[in-house]
Amino acid sequence: EDINAEEYPTEIHDYLATFEKSLSSVDEMLKTMMSVSRSELLQKLEPLEQAKLDLVSAYTLNSMFWVYLATQGINPKDHPVKQELERIRTYMNKVKEIADKKKASKLDKGAASRFVRNALWEPNPENECTSKTPAKGKKRK
Q: Annotated region Disordered: where (predicted)?
């Protein structure tokens, strides 16, 4: 539905256009996600990916409810949805930490010790007698 430009302040036209594009984008993503059954989707994913999907779904749903509250003139900051979003964000951070630990490279202790041993300078017995310290230069007056 096209809204007559005279029905709202012209300053917010760009914001409304951007909002409409965002809603269309969300609608397309939801249609795509809903086209596959949840159990079928979860079978294709590893447990960590399943957790990510569940968290993103819950966060998205609660975010949309936040927007709904705002459009109804209710301050979402004073509503329990705010605590729910924070709780979900906490779990998202935990899942991210687990994923980061999983991605972290494993230390090959044998290779590390060989690298350190070969990188350290060891004096040769034949070189111990000769000093490798440079001769001190003359001081200028």
A: 122-141
Q: 14 and 28, same structural domain?
A: yes
Please, which pLDDT band fits residue 117 given cuts at 50, 70 and 90?
confident
Compute the Cα dihedral for 108, 111, 116, 117 and give only its sign: positive
- In this prediction, residue 106 carries a pLDDT of 72
- When divided into structural domains, the chain yields a total of 2
Q: What is the domain range of residue 26?
A: 10-44
- Token readout for 117 is 């041993």
**Residue 53, Cβ density class (10 Å: 0-12 exposed, 13-18 middle, ≥19 buried):** middle
Q: Is residue 42 within 8 Å of 53, Cβ to Cβ?
A: yes
Task: Judge if 100 and 55 occupy the same domain.
Answer: yes
Task: Please write the tens of the pLDDT for every residue from 34-69.
Answer: 888 888 888 888 999 999 999 999 999 999 999 999
